[in-house]
Structure prediction request, 730 residues.
Amino acid sequence: MVRPVKRREPLTDAQLLMTITIGIFAVMYGAAMIFMGGGFLRTQQLFDLLNDNAALIIISCALTIVMIGGGINISVGGVIGLTVMACALYLNGSGIQNDVLCIIVTFLLAIGIGLAFGLFQGFLISYLDIQPFIVTLAGMFLSRGLTTILSANPVKVTHAGFQALVKARAAFPFLGYTAKNGNLIAAKLEIGAIVALCVVVLVYLMLRFTRLGRHIYALGGNQQSALMLGINVKRTRFMSYVLSGLLSGLAGFVFLMHKPAGNASVAMRSEMDAIAASIIGGTLLTGGVGNVIGTFFGAMILATIQKIIALSSLNESWWQEMANGAMLGLFILLQSVILSSRSKHKKTAPNSAAGRGGWRTIRPRMGRRRGQ
Amino acid sequence: MKQKTRADKRKGALGQLMIPLIALGILLLFNLIRDPRFYAISVATNNSGNPVLTGNLISIIDSASELAIIAMGMTLVTAACGGQDISVGAVGTISGTIFVKVLKAFPAINIGTVLLAALACCLVTILFMSFNGTLVSVFRIQPMIATLILFSCGRSIAYWIVGSATPQIDSPIISAMGMTIPGIPIPTPVFGVLLVGLLLAAVFRFTTLRLYTETVGVNEGAARLNGINPVLVKMGSFVILGICVAAAGIIGTSRMGQVSLKTLLVDIEMDAILAVAIGGNSLGGGRFRIIGSVLGAYIIQMLTTTLLAMRVDPVDIKAYKAVVIIVIVVAGSPVVKRELVRLWSLLRQRVLPAKGVK
Prediction:
């Protein structure tokens, strides 16, 4: 009589939403190829999307981890800004002669800043039971404020070794194209973009196959059940914030490799872009549902919109915001309709446990109900 | 038994206001020790020769007006929906542009046209907030996500309405609304806060809105079983927030005498949410106290003014603000509270037997 428990049910929702996201990305990119032509027909355009948005992709992954766990982190953009500024200042001012060593120390500095924010926020949120929104809002204020305290003026990196790193590219001749003068121009990918792709794969594997990853899904799905199953809820939540902090630090370093200059307005509002990317990718803020591959395509959709608007002669930032808003609205409605129709279907199906369809229809809340 | 519960309720309500009151007290004390001249209030004459009160305290209650008004509406939305609206700044900007646009459509600015413009603002913001409200209540989308749409494109819509020019509105009525009415030395926005506050108080006094909102916030399913329509209650909270946002947009625009899309009510959504949280309201919905949020708004403004008076660079203020916020929320966290209560009872156990012996 015991029916096998469908363990992967939350994932199938995510998979459906992810498929839609990938489909829309393909349609959008295809339309750009047909109507815009030119650059979009070359692989380099796709690679440029990756190059320009490597940091966004990484923080979107960070947001996805936290959101699957039922939390939110709006400090990621601020942490990028702080990391970029601190690393730029360190690279310019450090007395280390050895370039490699200097870059390694800078990298550790970036990771350290991210980790410090992650540890602190994670501690406040999971062990002191404070609302994640407020804690990470404070984190955002803190990191933005510290950035301007470090330097109110833009800081350009002058370190020779780092400049070489910035210029380093991975070339793919077979994906290139032949220029008019007959030279083969290879498609080039920046190191940051490669790091971002690795992060997507690693986070995907982590969420899918490791114990921590499964615990994060369980925690986001239903905290009470997770607790009953013997999952260390507090530690899992703590770890999700630590991971997101770590990834924001990494994103800061990647950002610096793309644009080697610190500035008070670096990655301004990018946390909202990251949240949008996660949502477009099929992650629910309710928690328990999401997939980092979808997030990747969500970020790529935002990047493609940006590119199309930049290439057409529209007033950039206003149209960009309008298009982002419209896109977000479309996906949110789509998700809501799909999920509600599915849960209705489940409810009417025989033998469906009330609790099963139930938890998804319970109102999501930012503040968690505590078990006391 | 009944009396005990009532006493408990009062104690709980005071407990909620305890943290913000203590924070405000510490800030006041800090300023008193740092520099008593902080509290100096003097009468000066403005450009048109009318007496006005000047001083840090006046500037605090004046410039916190928009924040306080929005925080009131935000409290209601938070209580009903268990989430926050992050589009208030953007929608407030739209309200400001509508205000300017309508006023510019008439040849002269008089009381009638101002009222008409204000009405138009209210209608438009209610429309936008109803969009948010529909997404939240009918489509059951997390408020923060639903309002992310208008957050990201609201200012673009304002730009679309008003164009790249920033039209000036120059009229004694507008300056009376944004600064001071001739003859009354107190800044007019303060009266705006009072007006909105009194209106809300009257609504809570004479309708069941408060009870319904709290019921929906505590347990939506139970509210529905008791015959309350959660969709209606949530929409109602968003409509009220819309009116608050319209008021804040009008005040902000009148204060500047123009609408500047990049600076009008910028970042106010974060401060408003912060005010709600500092006021001791749960961000997860349910019970609420508007007065707590208003206190929170004044605390935030007081903090900013204090830091400015200490000659902290305006762009660095955020970092200090963050530290204070962290201290306040840690002090208000349930875990820390529990520990404090445990310590207190331990202390009393030590002290009370000694008294008994005496």
